[in-house]
Amino acid sequence: MIEFSKIGKLVAGAVLAMASSVALADHVPGIGFTEKTFTINPGAIGEAGCGGGTCKASFLDFSYKAEVDQVRTGATTASFDETGGGYFGTFRTSLGGPVVGGTGLNNNYSMYFVFTATGTTALSGTTIDGTFNTFNYTMYVDRNMNTTLSNAQAGGADQSIGVSGGFADDVAVLTGTLVQGGFHIAQGLANGDFNAIATAIALNGFFGGDAFASGEAFTDINGVNSIIKGIPKTNPFANTTDITIDGSGNTSFEPTPVPVPEPTSLALFGLALAGLAFARSKKKA
Ligand SMILES: [Ca+2]
Ligand SMILES: [Ca+2]
């Protein structure tokens, strides 16, 4: 049985990640992210919205659900496969800020995404730290607003989350793969947080603007896990099918992620500078 005394810190971290676009969860070290504005063009896929032109936004909110199958790899470690997806609610001009009006989202069309992921988990203090090894997603515009995501039951038969309903009308507008990402799992009101940086390849002319100007955009996917069910109580790392997760978050985009030196390389860099200064002072004397 693991304890979750770090929940206060985790919630604070998750709220920070939600409240500040530049705040990165500490499981995505070494990658800075400064979101740029992006545009959407509903007309590009035959939908009404944005006055027949484009709308500008910086963030897109979503809710999501996922199911996880895990295989024990040690006393306090496991590997996992995950499937999931979610629905998009609102485009915003800033994090938690004003809603971009007139986009047509959830009036003329809806938007959803599906993803698959693999990774590893390990006990870290009193929480579970997760690392993604793979994360593949595709975002769709559902023109007829009739596509639904299937459910998985915690602790039930092995299921996956995928699309059902009418998806012949759906248009892929964005797809990408993992750069780096991870998550925390804790017990309590908010069951941890997640953060992934992934590539963001615009499809069918829906996304554009500054964030996609280089032709090779990246997305920062941040959020909190609100409900997690099915983690084995006696050993959280035991073999299990269909741990279910519900959560919410937001995504933003930029043309290139800016690398941030790790503390260790910063320290080495400092040493190198000190050495250089020493060499210079010696040469001078
Ligand atoms: Ca499953
Ligand atoms: Ca549809």
TrEMBL record:
Superkingdom of origin organism: Bacteria
Annotated InterPro entries: Ice-binding_C
Signal peptide residue numbers: 1-25
Keyword Magnesium: no
UniProt KW Signal keyword: yes
Designated name of the protein: Flocculation-associated PEP-CTERM protein PepA
Transmembrane segments: none
The Ice-binding protein C-terminal domain, residue ranges: 259-280
Keywords, ordered alphabetically: Signal
